[in-house]
Amino acid sequence: MSNIAHTYYPQSGRLVVLGAGESGVGAAILAKDRGFDVFVSDMGQIAGSYKATLELEQIPFEEGKHSEELILNADLVVKSPGIPEKAPLIKQLRSLNKPLISEIEFAAQYTDSKLYCITGSNGKTTTTMLTYSILKNAGLDVGLAGNIGNSFALQVARDPHACYVLEISSFMLDDMYHFRADVAVILNITPDHLDRYDYKMENYVASKFRMVQNQGESDYFIYCLDDPETVAALDKHPTKAIHLPFTQERELEQGAFVDANKNLNILVPNREVFTMNIEELSLQGKHNIYNNSAAGLIAKVQELRNQSMKESMGSFVNIEHRLEHVASVGGVNYINDSKATNVNSVWYALESFSSDIVLIMGGVDKGNDYDMLRDLVRSKVKAIICIGKDTGRIHEAFEDETDVIVNSASMSDAVQIASHLAKKGDTVLLSPACASFDWFKNYEERGDKFKEAVMAL
């Protein structure tokens, strides 16, 4: 086991983990291995597999409650990113000046591995998976963690790698203070989760830019030059890191751009120039050119061979529930984009297909502003089928933009209605723009139910 790499927090004493999901259980195991007195507390019911792991590791835990007498005496608290700041227990811990940190912040103390960190409102998972795939195919010893894959802390404890690709959400970043990314990527910043940021866009932007805090002159900052929120915030959040922007709107001397011949060019100082025609990329659509640009820049920073990069970028298969082609039934294509839980993700999805779309959307509205979808809905969407409980705002937003807006009683009902409305050559697109917690456990279950209903047609 490696020695402590960077210490900013107590290295012994009582450590409490709030939340017993993937990140929480991983943090508990790392803390146990490091000699802490560990206790895990979850307000909900702990999933069977995680409970079994905690029992096997002999880590004490509770579920269905937070016992203050077992928590407030902590020397260090690692909290699930899903627990909001306004939760009474968090306020109490803050008032006692207890250090509250994320699993990523905790685990980063115990590794000197290279950390390639990706955030953004949209495209995080695709870019993270693509980057991981490129590095792994090139023979690197690489781990995948953060919002995806196995817990970062668990890998640092029991399955260490030379480098990690980390998908990092704003909720994780909020509890990160000393963590440093060797390569920090901000793909884009569009309104999302504003309920967690006092409905202020600048608070959400500041959260995303925590990615570059602590970066030094030998680190890299990769960002989208075509994203207005990111560009507007650059001056407010300076970093000493080497800047590698990417764009589809002009040519650059450093970074990534698409030229007039539709070639993606990647130029990193002191590295071989990379060129690949965008039509050879396995992931198509404007948004995926951005995702490939970011992943390609990371690969070039790592000095990967061009041929290896081309093979990976030309053969990568996208993740489940993100613009996933389910089936073609009667000449109608059914696309599962259940992971689109915000408006901008839906914009990307609509931009990826030609017209005659039957759009299935709805769920738990997070304060969505549907204005940015109006033009695309008007030009491409022939019908909207609403799912979930918050349908009123969808009707209000689009009643003048499309001929048909109807509510459905279930996912199978929505798919049945869609199959009657769609003609040969049309696309039925599940791209909800909303959270899933009204009808489903999570976006995965929502996507699975959609796929089941399509296969039953």
Automatic annotation (TrEMBL):
UniProt keyword annotations, A-Z: ATP-binding, Cell cycle, Cell division, Cell shape, Cell wall biogenesis/degradation, Cytoplasm, Ligase, Nucleotide-binding, Peptidoglycan synthesis
GO molecular function: ATP binding; UDP-N-acetylmuramoylalanine-D-glutamate ligase activity
Coiled-coil residues: none
Catalytic activity: UDP-N-acetyl-alpha-D-muramoyl-L-alanine + D-glutamate + ATP = UDP-N-acetyl-alpha-D-muramoyl-L-alanyl-D-glutamate + ADP + phosphate + H(+)
InterPro entries: Mur-like_cat_sf, Mur_ligase_C, Mur_ligase_C_dom_sf, Mur_ligase_cen, MurD
Subcellular location: Cytoplasm
GO cellular component terms attached to this protein's record: cytoplasm
NCBIfam families listed in its UniProt record: murD
Name of the protein: UDP-N-acetylmuramoylalanine--D-glutamate ligase
Organism of this sequence: Sphingobacterium zhuxiongii
Gene responsible for this protein: murD
